[in-house]
Amino acid sequence: MNGKSVLTISLEDISVLLDAFLPDYDFYARNPCKVAIDLIGSYLVSTDHEGVTAIRIVEVEAYGGEDDPASHAFRGLTKRNAPMWDSPGRSYVYFTYGMHYCFNVVTSPKGVAGAVLVRAGQPIQGVDIMTRRRGRSFLRDLCSGPAKLCQAMGIDSTLSNVILDTPRLCILIPRNRKQIEIERSARIGIRNGLNLPWRFYEKDSVWISAKTLNPA
DNA sequence: GATCCGATTCGCT
DNA sequence: GCGAATCGGATCG
């Protein structure tokens, strides 16, 4: 794939490459836990001037609305978290710790806050690009965390609140996805809502975030 | 305005 | 296992 084709790559090109399709509006307009589970095994694709990067999602977390104490939506609508109430099937990217970005897929019907945080994935396309952006070459270190995968895929806050239906940033579902064994746990890195088992990941995957690779 | 702190990562002990 | 990095958003005055 040369530089010129990268700049002009179509959604159809990527869909053929990955043998996958765009989910419809109703896929996203559901409870975030349902969407979260169905996003495992799907692809996240990002394209910019450097080229195409894609991962196979293996770890996600669901976040609710005003009733979920761990959610950014818990304290109501602000300029930052507004995408969480917007129409489903778009992105919510936020900046945190003064240096990191995290990528969410917006779920639930419009007007109901909900999102799925993508926490980890297996690099599928553009490993060279990811390696350069991350500054490290160990494959399992490229996308094994929510901020790592954003850095590897060139995702920042300029990509927040965009609809996930173009090569710039999209989710694609494999046409023949095999049954996936999914485990669940409490969400990571939060203080409240630890009682809710809303983290989901593929059983035995070596690509999940490091904190759980070696459980005590 | 001032202060607190985070859906994290990395390097060092 | 612990703390620094680093800054915008949220909260309170």
Describe this structure in words.
- By secondary structure, this protein is α+β, with helices and mostly antiparallel strands.
- The protein has helices at 3-7, 11-18, 25-28, 32-39, 127-134, 146-153; strands at 20-21, 43-48, 51-63, 91-96, 100-106, 115-125, 165-166, 169-174, 182-185, 199-202.
- Strands 1, 2, 3, 4, 5, 6, 7, 8, 9 and 10 form a 10-stranded antiparallel beta sheet that branches.
- Helix 5 (127-134) crosses helix 6.
- The protein is globular.
- The model has no long low-confidence stretch (mean pLDDT 94).
- It binds a DNA duplex (13 and 13 nucleotides) through strand 4, strand 5 and helix 6.
- It is an enzyme of class 3 (hydrolase).
